[in-house]
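call fold(seq) -> tokens
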Amino acid sequence: MILWDSNCDHPCTRLRDWDDFVRQVARGLRSGKGFRIGYTPEDASPEEFEKFALLAWSMLDGKRPTYAIVEELADVSRHAGTAPGIVKKLMNQGRKYGLRFHGCTQRPEEIYKTFYTQVGITYYGRQKTVAQCQKFSKEIDIPFREIKALPDLCFYIDDGRTVTRKQLKYKKAAKINSR
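ret:
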């Protein structure tokens, strides 16, 4: 698994230098074992992300799943249209070669449409703006007001065939006595 994690959100072997990241990924691939290596760039730019996408593409062999988690998709998108070059190729063709892509954003209106038109499963949580609610209402055929009124920890899952609503429930953590 490789991660684009500009805010250090995920536990992993974290590297800030691109060349070190590439070396660690190559070492992980040669080992034949699973790995979890994150890249935390100094400059989380679309240009830097295109290097990450090229590396992800080079890892795909179709023999095993290759996971790529990308945080803050809006930070690496230049506009809301079609993704450029290697990013488009990765999103449009990666699944047939084993790519399992997990992209996260809080600003879906700012990401390349290629990210969300090529996904197998989409999760829609509560939205802040009327425009976002209207957009998702049209996409998943759920009334605008239902999306706007989603409570905490509630979301819709669209798997391409059906849309279901889920409510997460957490048990209260046991109190720990400290001495």
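The first strand starts at residue 2 and ends at 4.
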